[in-house]
Design a protein that fits this description.
This protein is of the alpha+beta class. It is built from five helices and nine strands. The chain binds copper (II) ion. Copper (II) ion binds near residues 65, 66, 69 and 158.
Length: about 190
């Protein structure tokens, strides 16, 4: 009986040690070795708080940018708007997220004026700089603030790819900046009907 208790105790100890190692190994967020993606709690342009889990069941097009962007962001939002149009009824299965990397200037009202202009279905998201940085890192995206000519002015160089996430939050691919709306729509259609 005593021997059995010792064995049980030893097994319990091994399980405990293994479990604590597993906890330590579980990353808090995606590291470079993992597929792009990230948990998040952000704020939509209409003021709603949203998390990544709110979008489960939908395909996601995720884009990082900022509303003061002179070219890349307006072009990409036009691309996304066109993709939604090309998808027709299947657009119901897709949510398009525009995540600002410039929360200091991109408040709810600024996002609400900018994002739906391209298509009312596109959701502008902002949040704390810390949360945004974490999401950017999780998606293996990048941005760099570039000082402008006048005091305090700046532009931001940023990743211009559109990320495609599946209904379970899984990474399905990324569309480089030059990808045509037709190609993106075709890819989405194929994976929606899978
Ligand atoms: Cu931009």
């Amino acid at each position: 009986m005593v021997a059995q208790q010792k064995v049980a105790h030893a097994i319990a100890m091994i399980c405990f040690v293994l479990a604590s190692h597993l906890v330590m190994l579980a990353p808090a967020h995606a590291t470079s070795g993992e597929a792009p993606g990230s948990r998040f709690i952000l704020s939509a342009h209409d003021g709603r708080t949203v998390t990544d889990e709110d979008f489960r069941g939908s395909h996601l097009l995720v884009f990082f940018g900022y509303t003061h962007c002179p070219d890349v962001c307006p072009t990409s939002l036009m691309t996304i708007a066109r993709v939604l149009e090309l998808l027709g009824d299947q657009a119901k299965s897709v949510k398009a997220l525009f995540i600002t990397v410039d929360p200091a200037r991109d408040t709810h009202s600024v996002l609400a004026e900018f994002v739906p202009y391209f298509d009312p279905r596109i959701i502008g998201l902002t949040g704390s700089q810390e949360m945004i940085d974490r999401v950017v890192k999780g998606y293996h995206a990048k941005y760099t603030k570039v000082p402008g000519k006048t005091d305090g002015s700046y532009t931001i160089d940023h990743t211009a790819a559109i990320f495609h996430m599946g209904p379970n939050g899984e990474y399905l691919g990324r569309f480089p900046f030059e990808t045509t709306p037709e190609d993106i729509a075709a890819k989405l259609k194929a994976s929606i009907t899978q």
